[in-house]
Amino acid sequence: MKDSINTISIVSVFVLLSISLATSNDSVDFDSFLRCLPTRSNPSVPIADAILTPDNSSFQSIYQLHANNLRIFLSATSRPVAIITALHPSHAQATVVCAKRHGFQVRIRSGGHDFEGLSYTSDVPFVILDLFNLRSIDIDMASETAWVQAGATTGELYYRIAEKSNVHGFPSGYCTTLGIGGHFSGGGYGFLMRKHGLSIDNVIDAELIDVDGRILNRESMGEDVFWAIRGGGTTSFGVILSWRVKLVRVPPRVTVFTVPRTLEQGATELVYRWEHVAPKLPKDLFIRLQADPINNGGNNKTIRVSFTGNFLGQTNRLIQLMNANFPELGLRRSDCLEMSWVESTVYWGAFLNGTSSIDVLLNRVIGGLFYKSKSDYYKTVIPRQGLETLWEALMDIEDVFVQMNPYGGRMEEISESETAFAHRGGNLFMVQYGVQWSDGGIGASGRYVELSRRLYSAMEPYASSNPREAFVNYRDIDIGSNESSETDFEAAKEYGAKYFRNNFKRLAGVKARVDPENFFKNEQSIPPFVY
Predict the structure, then answer these.
(1) Distances (CA, A) of 148 to 113, 133, 170, 409
(2) What is the pTM of this model?
(3) I need a surface site. Which of 252, 271, 455, 479 has the fewest CB within 10 A?
(4) Which CATH number describes the domain made up of 13-130?
(5) What pLDDT, in 10s, does the model give residues 492-516?
(6) What is the pLDDT of residues 210-242, one digit of tens each?
């Protein structure tokens, strides 16, 4: 990447034309922006090695490498004028200061798992600050804590913890290529959430670059900002450089299982029973279900529901708990696998049923897909009639899945105002609806997006309401958005209430204090507002 990057050279006429056509703001000055960067960064780590412009041979590959939703590129109207692949914290500081001074918007990317591409697209002149090179993980077993840079992945964190201990872990995502920076800030969850809460519930400090380019820690940013970046998304408030997390204790051996059932095998009744049981199980037991349509022979389709569990203990005790609480599933010893906690992260990452080496956790390649996802929170049980509605909707779509993640346990114990993440007590489970496809045409994408909306609409009578809540890490432009160049408060209230419930007003107040001119913004950012 470094061998052909030229930072201060004049970019191609095409790029200059793109800039001039994209905006009428006379303050946008690309050459001055490039000249500014070295003056604001650490000279011992030349920022020249971190800058990619569209005339560079690596530009397009890096642009697409860390963007896993290929649907976004079909509708993108412009490319970034530059990608800053920060090699040092000062490179991120320089990007903020120089972009603000010379009229460019900054989009911040750490892993690329951005469902709507808000971290790497914009309709106004912008630069991408890509943090994938800032990936160090410093674990201190004496204090049972770790500093994790924003560009590290969840898989890398799991792997590095396992190098130090077989009785420590961290509650984070199933997917092992998630970038830590954004994943944590939106309230990243995983199979430990009923026992230990979300990632942000175990964050004890952070390093944040503010709108003036200063690096702040918890003490210097203040408790209001520290509250806001844990669940409110950091990109409205600054650039997360790193998180300090408290590791959690796990047993030396855990047990995982997957039990599939089709409609013909009584899946509807099992799901109905799961709704009642899963949120009330002991905290050590987490059972997620996924439903998807499959071919049942010939042209016949059915729904397969997979019950996947994680138990912080050994098989004998798990069988006892299941027989006492959920005997209808018929869990057998042969369904269960005992393994170390880090091996269970491989299992949940769908790597060959946990038989792969844990080295797969170090794989950072995310692999692009065309997809549209939506989310819901359920506060009451979906009745049998509602489940039948769901199955019918799934039958009409190819390459669709629905995942249901149980709440209860630790999630019930934490107040919705303790962090900016407000979806706490009162929820039985959170649902993701996902539609994927391989045909990349605009027409195909439009059709699949519409199918996802039909599925979402079909479940409206059963989901949370007033507002119909959504998970901010599963970004969904359909629930409300702004233009790239503005953050209108009335429009923001529409999506803000769904993502943050009663915490939205407080988030807007924090934003007004730390970024009153609204430099850090995207189509679903927090607006500054003084109450």
Answers:
(1) 18, 12, 12, 27
(2) 0.93
(3) 252
(4) 3.30.43.10
(5) 999 999 999 999 999 999 999 999 9
(6) 999 999 999 999 999 999 999 999 999 999 999
> Domain 254-338+368-458 carries which CATH code?
3.40.462.20
Count the Cβ atoms, other than its own, within 10 Å of residue 2. 11
Encoded amino acid at 353, one letter: N
CB 531 within 8 A of CB 509: yes
> Are the C-beta atoms of residues 383 and 477 closer than 8 Å to each other?
no
Angle at 272 between CA 267 and CA 274, to 5 degrees: 90
Please tell me if the domain spanning 137-249 has the same topology as the one spanning 254-338+368-458: no
Q: How many other CB atoms are found less than 10 A from the CB of residue 320?
A: 11
| Three-state SS annotation for 146-196 | EEEECCCEHHHHHHHHHHHCCCEECCCCCCCCCEHHHHHHCCCCCCCHHHH
- CA neighbor of 204 nearest in space, from 150, 144, 250, 161: 144
Largest CA distance in the chain: 71
What was the pLDDT predicted at 27?
53
Nearest by Cα to 63 from 93, 86, 85: 85
Torsion of CA 139, 140, 143, 145, to 10 degrees: -10
In the sheet that 239-246 helps form, which strands lie side by side, from edge to edge?
137-140, 145-149, 239-246, 203-209, 215-216
- Poorest-confidence range of 15-19, 28-32, 137-141, 308-312? 15-19
User: What is the rounded end-to-end Cα distance, in angstroms, of the chain?
Assistant: 48
DSSP conformation class of 86: -
Of 3.40.630.30, 1.20.1250.20, 3.30.465.10, 4.10.910.10, the CATH number of 137-249 is 3.30.465.10
Tokens of 165: 């201990």
Q: Where are the domains of the chain?
A: 13-130, 137-249, 254-338+368-458
